[in-house]
Amino acid sequence: MTENIKEQELNDFFDGKSTSTISKVVKKAKRKTILRNMGISLFVIVFLLITLSLSWLFIIRGSQEKAMRDIELFSRITNPNIELLESQNESNGVFEGILTFNRYKEIEGIPVDWSNHVVRYSLFGGMSRFKRTEIQIKDKEDGLDRNYDRETKQRMMNFYHPDVSYSQIRNDLNTLNNFKDDTFIELGVSFNQKYTPDEVRELIPENITLKWYWVDTYSREDIKSLNTHITKYKPTFPELATEIYGFSEDPTDSSMSEKRFIDDVQSGLNYEDGKYFGEFNRIYNNLKGESANLAAENIEIIGAVVTGTPKELAELNDMDMIRATVLGVTVKPY
């Protein structure tokens, strides 16, 4: 009888019908195995998510820092008389972010708002600027187009290369009488030839503030192309302030100004993965010419940005070195 019961239990066990202790142990073991596997799977998933999140954060932060480095370095040789403030970062989806740089101009000690510089940077290292075209309005006085900053509606300066033959050239020194005596004015000045930085410092009147130097970074081919284009189409398109290169005057030690410019250009060559490496390389080679290395002797100035009152700037009238003058920002003292 006992043997029959055991035999029946074995049959029930193998048929999945056993309610004996052995059956319960096996089922419990199965549940533990399932729970353990689920736990391992969950741990692996959480671990992968954390790893991917940290990797994403590391890569996107690296892309952000690279974009900031490129913008800050390039801005030091571009954008005449424009200063960068802090940048603001915001996410634009999983794969990219947006950097916004607040900017201003300083006119005789007064800060003046300027348009923000906004760029989009990618998880994969790319960077592009949000292009905001300037406002263009024909001037009623001379019939030439004036450019205005889209955000602030302030005038944008233009510059005329001394080796390019333009069909018309603007001289805004003639308009200084239209401003009140206490107005502070920014003026883009184009020279009749190339000068050394020291020559510019010597020739510009002392009571006029010298803010920025326009450096001749053009090759012979560039000049030939500009002259050919003007001869063929007869436009009067001088260089917009956003299209030229140069450096700020150091108010504490002017002799360091061109040295910092050279250092900035050479620094740009250290980042082959940088957004503006190609432009830094072009500028370096054009400036260096046949010289072994880029030095202060290679820096030639073809224009400048100056500030002052109408009376002070009027001293530029009848100076042989002045080829053209174009108004920039104007501001009243507080």
Automatic annotation (TrEMBL):
Domain Sigma factor regulator C-terminal: 177-328
Keywords on record: Membrane, Transmembrane, Transmembrane helix
Superkingdom assignment: Bacteria
Family matches, as InterPro entries: Sigma_reg_C_dom, Sigma_reg_N
Sigma factor regulator N-terminal domain residues: 24-109
Keyword Transmembrane helix: yes
Name of the featured protein: Sigma factor regulator C-terminal domain-containing protein
Organism, as annotated: Viridibacillus arvi
Organism placement in taxonomy: Bacteria, Bacillati, Bacillota, Bacilli, Bacillales
